[in-house]
Design a protein that fits this description.
- Keywords: Metal-binding, Zinc, Zinc-finger.
- It is a single chain.
- The protein contains three helices and seven strands; from the N terminus they run ββββαβαββα.
- By secondary structure, it is an alpha+beta fold.
- It starts with 7 loop residues before the first strand and ends with a helix.
Length: 109
Amino acid sequence: MAGLSMPSFAISSDEVKDFICSSCEEQAYADFYCKTCLKLYCGKCIQLHDKWFRKHSAYGRNDMKEWPVLKQVEEFLLKCEAHKDHKIEMLCDDHSQLCCTKCAFNNHR
């Protein structure tokens, strides 16, 4: 997923991130994602993209479920809360809880 860039802005202890246009020299925020090109575009650049690539499907911010998930976000979501060095790999049916192998062995036998 080269070409996808996100700046971060610290707001107290939280971090807010947004996507940046892949082709714009102005570092504008991206409003569209092309699944075929695997690139993000601002409102200005998407117009040129659409002229060149009529058969590509670009997804706007209202279709962000089609946008890529960054590797860091995916890793964060799959990390065990109790054991930061382990990934969530199982579901305990008895407790309806996602857990890593260490949690499963210690708490969910």
